[in-house]
Amino acid sequence: MRWDSLFADLEAQLDAADGGAAGELGERVRAEVAGVHLRDRLRGARGQVLGLRLLAGARVEGRLRAAGPDWLLLDEPAGEALVPLGVVTAVEGLPRALAAPAGAVEARLGLASVLRGVSRDRSAVRVALLGEALGVLTGTVDRVGADHLEVAQHPVDEPRRAGSVRSAVVVPLAALACVRRVGQPRV
Q1: Hey, which of 103, 124, 135, 160 would disulfide with 182, CB 3.0 to 4.6 Å?
Q2: Does the predicted TM-score (pTM) go above 0.90?
Q3: Does residue 74 contact residue 64 with C-beta atoms inside 8 Å?
């Protein structure tokens, strides 16, 4: 009888220890996940097809090509879409994978830097704005400041020429919902 009691007591102690270790492990995992930023999860999803829901109800779906500290670049069937991370309200299709923290150069490559590249290559763009039922500007990004861009409005099927520009519109970066490149860059 004493042996049965001893074995039962040892089994109870082992069960309690296993439960404590599992609880401790779970707590450690929760603490690690608490320090993960969305941008690191998104960088870990390169190559995945994602569905983004944006402020004002817009939706963007495509294969994630790149993710910066405050932007996402998705390949869509008709081209590519540059989306400010600050307007994303939900992400569908995001795997649990994480990317290593961004390097110093990658961490400094913000939305304005990427938009300067779009301006340099003279791509025709469609710029979707927040609010105003997602108004859309078409044309070429002429200039990009620290917190705004200037769009020379013209039909996207025409090159940017003085005669085709209807107006120039300055847009705060905070008002951008999505910038879609249309066709091939114009030089």
Answers
A1: 124
A2: no
A3: yes
What is the structure's pLDDT at 25? Answer: 66
In this structure, how many other beta carbons lie within 10 angstroms of the beta carbon of residue 150?
16
Give the SS3 label for residue 49: strand
Instruction: Specify the DSSP class assigned to residue 158.
Output: S
CA distance 180 to 169: 17
**Looking at residues 6-18, what average pLDDT do you find?**
68
Write down all domains in the chain, each with its CATH number in brackets: 38-182 (2.30.30.100)
Tokens for 145?
Answer: 């400041």
Q: What are phi and psi of 33, to 5 degrees?
A: -65, -30
Task: Report the candidate in 143, 139, 133 with the shortest Cα–Cα distance to residue 173.
Answer: 143
Sheet (strand 124-129) strand order: 88-92, 49-54, 59-67, 71-76, 79-84, 176-182, 124-129, 136-144, 148-153, 167-172
Looking up tokens 């941008």, which residue turns up? 39
Structure tokens at 59: 């939706």
β pairing state of 124-129 and 88-92:
unpaired
Q: What percent of the chain is helix, strand and coil (3-state, nearest 5)?
A: 35, 35, 30
